[in-house]
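Hello K.,

You asked for the raw outputs rather than the summary table, so here they are, unedited. I folded two proteins back to back in the same session to keep the settings identical. This is the first:
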Amino acid sequence: MITDGSPTPVTNPGSERVFTLILTQGPISRVAIARRTGLSQAAVTKVAKPLLAAGYLEESADRERTGPGAGRPASPLQIRADREFFVGIKITRYHLIGVLTDLRADVLARLTWDLADLDPAAIVRQLAAMVAWLRDAEPTFRERSRCLGVAVSGDVDRRRGNVGYSPFLEWHDVPLARLITEATGLTVTIENDVKALAVGEHWFGAGVGVRDFGVVTLGQGIGSALVIDDRLVSGAYGVAGELGHTPVGGEEPRCRCGGRGCLEAIAASELLTEAVREATGDASLGFPNAVRLAQSGQPDAQAIFQHAARAVGRGVATLANLTGPERVIISADNPDLVGFAEFHAEVRRSFTEQAFGSVVNCELVFVHRPLEAWARAAATVAMQSLLTL
């Protein structure tokens, strides 16, 4: 096992495509790799050789024939999962959620801590202690983990490592990547949390094998991200695809961003909970029980969630009309909302009404992603640092 900390032998677009394909869809034969990437079999063999030598790839014990009548069976290539480990941290307003994964994004260690303070320096100290704990959870983790991904809400500039604005954390212009690098000594990649989740879905989730898709997240805020032509779209300022602050409700309640009619001002979980509390007179009601009331057919709660679902459908249709994705993954951290059939049906009806032409064929997929999945996605973002392009 090579653990010298040297970069992966991913040095050109061809090797990047091959490595990523094997990582996300392996085991896969050289013939299939050539077919899917457009490279020749000789080029695939040339790319694979240094990756095999460096211990990132191995030949699967499974054998497959390259085609009808082919004599010699192929040995599919697969990732060597324990070649390197990755740390992923999701920062919320109240918690740090951390995981350590292998190269297949399987979670090998996990930890959740309450945040003691929202000051950036205090969070970085806690985060560094969490990273140390995760890397020491097993004897082999520390020597094989050098990359850390951090997912945080708000306006995040991944290239510069800066958090321009995070409303939930009340941060402005925080050089987060530099601070964490100084505290941990690791290669640090920060990313907007929803964009990180899109990377996780693209490589290991509901977006595997889909070149064009969107992710919409329903929770304390409404987030979205886009993958177009197999690439995460960030835009000039890192905020491309910001659906939560797209107006879908006319002059409805003012949003925390200062605008009116924003999707987030209508469908965020905190606002839905407040609306159901007011309608029912139950000031102690939490979001899970608000969802269950609507599911059970309580008229006020049901009407509130139907209204939110229509707004979500309009927002998703706007996203689809502009970008034409094959699929939109609608993710919620609350499992009851994911299982709320009437809510899904209302989202689909509203989407269908607003979708233009063949956009109506866009597949809507509802998934449950707990906070640990966001930390796992942050670890996946850290994996991208292996690609030296």
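The second followed immediately with the same parameters:
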Amino acid sequence: MFLGEYSHTIDSKKRLAIPSKFREQLGKEAVLTRGLDNCLFLFPKREWEVLASKLGKLPIGQKDARGFGRLMLAGAFDVEMDSLGRILIPDYLKKYASLKKQIVIAGLYNRLEIWDEDKWNQYKQKTEKEVGDVAERLGELGV
């Protein structure tokens, strides 16, 4: 299970070190893709395969299903961790998430999210203000 948030930097070669706490659980090979809210999702291979299978079964006749499938599947990139625990972030994903130098890697149960630090702080500040309302809505869903 991935939990916590960690600050890191992207080097000049677009490599990002994954926190050592997450490396074993992530595995040597993983999948990086466009996430929601302009971040990136990093999945262990086995978790990605479960999600990709579900996305592949979405009805192609529905516009939203096609769009979401395209966002996630066409945006996916196989990554391999080097001996120092770094992954390469391709240009199109770096651009999508507006990643600069300072990065936040957030553990979210079955995936990691990779955020530009400024965008993460803005998102977190906004969400923290709304947490009471969000909790109430989740309560209605049984959470």
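Residues 117-129 form the longest helix (13 residues).

Happy to rerun anything if the numbers look odd on your end.

Regards,
P.
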